[in-house]
Automatic annotation (TrEMBL):
<feature type="transmembrane region" description="Helical">
    <location>
        <begin position="395"/>
        <end position="418"/>
    </location>
</feature>
<feature type="transmembrane region" description="Helical">
    <location>
        <begin position="338"/>
        <end position="360"/>
    </location>
</feature>
<feature type="transmembrane region" description="Helical">
    <location>
        <begin position="438"/>
        <end position="456"/>
    </location>
</feature>
<feature type="transmembrane region" description="Helical">
    <location>
        <begin position="125"/>
        <end position="149"/>
    </location>
</feature>
<feature type="transmembrane region" description="Helical">
    <location>
        <begin position="366"/>
        <end position="383"/>
    </location>
</feature>
<dbReference type="InterPro" id="IPR026033">
    <property type="entry name" value="Azg-like_bact_archaea"/>
</dbReference>
<feature type="transmembrane region" description="Helical">
    <location>
        <begin position="261"/>
        <end position="284"/>
    </location>
</feature>
<comment type="similarity">
    <text>Belongs to the nucleobase:cation symporter-2 (NCS2) (TC 2.A.40) family. Azg-like subfamily.</text>
</comment>
<keyword id="KW-1133">Transmembrane helix</keyword>
<feature type="transmembrane region" description="Helical">
    <location>
        <begin position="42"/>
        <end position="61"/>
    </location>
</feature>
<feature type="transmembrane region" description="Helical">
    <location>
        <begin position="304"/>
        <end position="326"/>
    </location>
</feature>
<protein>
    <submittedName>
        <fullName>NCS2 family permease</fullName>
    </submittedName>
</protein>
<dbReference type="GO" id="GO:0005886">
    <property type="term" value="C:plasma membrane"/>
</dbReference>
<dbReference type="InterPro" id="IPR006043">
    <property type="entry name" value="NCS2"/>
</dbReference>
<feature type="transmembrane region" description="Helical">
    <location>
        <begin position="73"/>
        <end position="89"/>
    </location>
</feature>
<dbReference type="Pfam" id="PF00860">
    <property type="entry name" value="Xan_ur_permease"/>
</dbReference>
<keyword id="KW-0813">Transport</keyword>
Length: 460
């Protein structure tokens, strides 16, 4: 029980940033009449917590798996920046698309279609997902820690102002402290590392060492907190919020809808979320030891149902698609193996409703230390890949490489799925490729054609 509770707290701390980030992103696109930007963000923070709690409760009690769920990064950005701000689609219509996606997920999950499709993913791709997610986590974590930054020529570089950036220095100290605790086999090593880094960060704040990221290196960091504590300018007060303007707003979104444009938006939400969730469940289950000899997760429909319910509820009450979080791997590394871990995560989301967001007390760079630690540990999963067989090495290698460099679990899986039948056929083993695997490869080609050719913009 103690291990599961520590694992749940660890998972919550590593994914708690969404309580602040999701309202900040969606708040740019959702404009509630008669409400200020701060009030809208308060409402969005509440519905973020509610949708995350509902989905994770289902994960705990129905699926009995240690996975945390919440509105997903990437999908919320597509919702805000592409669908609403770029295409000019009303935010109510975008919510309607999320609800439709959730209902489709519910139906496909109940009849077993999602499990069937996921089981069609080639074995080498399944075994590569864990390592790919590891590299993905490493980039996210190191960037939030200000160890790496963007560069116009090389795309990524070492922080050019590392020695004068207190946030980066404190993050690295916290990282090596956490590695030391893990190596010493200290129980709760990751959460102790997060707590220690948080304390050091607040102490540095108190002494006046609060860097402004824009002053360190203009425009090179994705996360630019005003101080080490990572607080935003929005002041969140005690609970007692009126979220009725968001609840049911999706119903207004069905009026005056262009059917083709709406269908393409639902298709994009659906496709990315489908394989993001599949990849996360597979990758985290691999390090937990849940996968069978074929790389499949037994009774995967149960955690998939949590994702479907969370997405549907989220769209109804006013937030974007809910998905399983790769940060769940931090709790799994702490020993979480049952729904008790998820229950702790869900209860902490509920507790955060008391003061929104309670989770923001932990600075982003401190919580993301856990991602780098877990990333290193997840790389051991590549030993399961048959590297001497090109029909395994090529799709597995592409999955591992494409995932972090495109910042998308789904795109990494797509690269592996598309390449697998091609390499198999080239080796003269086309009979070993299932019809469903060819269909999956073709579906991904179609997806990329729709997503990147401007068809959505032209249709809308």
């Amino acid at each position: 029980m103690r291990t599961e509770i520590v694992a749940g707290i660890t998972t919550f701390l590593t994914m708690s940033y969404i309580v602040v980030v999701n309202p900040a992103i969606l708040g740019l696109a959702i404009d509630v009449n008669g409400r200020t930007a701060a009030e809208t963000q308060q409402m969005l923070a509440v519905v973020t917590l509610i949708s995350a709690a509902v989905a994770t409760f289902v994960m705990a009690f129905h699926a009995n798996r240690p996975f945390g769920q919440a509105p997903g990064l990437g999908l919320n950005a597509f919702f805000a920046f592409t669908v609403v701000l770029t295409l000019g689609i009303p935010w109510e219509t975008a919510l309607a698309a999320v609800v439709v996606e959730g209902v489709i997920f519910l139906f496909l999950t109940v009849i077993g279609a999602r499990e069937y499709v996921i089981n069609m993913v080639p074995e080498p791709v399944k075994f590569a997902v864990g390592a790919g997610i590891g590299l993905f986590l490493a980039i996210i974590g190191l960037q939030a820690m200000h160890v790496i930054a963007s560069d116009p020529a090389t795309f990524v570089q070492f922080n050019p102002a590392f020695a004068t950036d207190p946030l980066a220095i404190i993050s690295v100290i916290g990282l090596f402290l956490t590695f030391a605790l893990v190596a010493a086999d200290v129980s709760g090593a990751i959460i102790l590392g997060i707590i220690a880094t948080t304390i050091i960060s607040y102490a540095a704040d108190a002494m006046g060492y609060s860097p402004h990221a824009s002053e360190v290196a203009e425009g090179v960091f994705l996360y630019t907190p005003a101080s080490l504590s990572g607080q935003t300018d929005i002041v969140y007060s005690l609970a007692g919020y009126d979220i009725t303007p968001l609840i049911g707003a999706f119903m207004r979104g069905f009026s005056n809808v262009d059917s083709m444009g709406f269908a393409l938006i639902v298709f994009t939400f659906f496709f990315v979320d489908f394989f993001d969730t599949a990849g996360t469940l597979t990758g985290v289950s691999q390090i937990a030891g849940f996968l069978d000899e074929d790389g499949n997760l037994p009774e995967i429909n149960k955690p998939l149902l949590a994702d479907a319910i969370g997405t549907t509820v989220g769209g109804i009450i006013g937030t974007s698609t809910v998905t399983t979080y790769i940060e769940s791997s931090s709790g799994v590394e702490e020993g979480g193996r049952t729904g008790m871990t998820a229950l702790v995560v869900a209860l902490l989301f509920v507790a955060s409703l008391a003061v929104v967001p309670l989770a923001a007390a932990v600075p982003l760079h401190a919580s993301h230390i856990a991602l780098v630690v877990v990333a290193v540990l997840m790389l051991r999963n590549i030993v399961d890949i048959q590297w001497d067989d090109l029909s395994h090495a090529v799709p597995a290698g592409l999955t591992v490489l494409v995932m972090p460099f495109t910042f998308s679990i789904a795109y990494g899986i797509a690269a592996g799925i598309i390449s697998y039948p091609v390499v198999k056929a080239a080796q003269g083993e086309w009979r070993d490729v299932q019809v469903g695997q060819w269909v999956l490869a073709g579906a991904f080609v179609l997806y990329f054609a729709v997503r990147t050719s401007g068809i959505i913009q032209a249709t809308v």
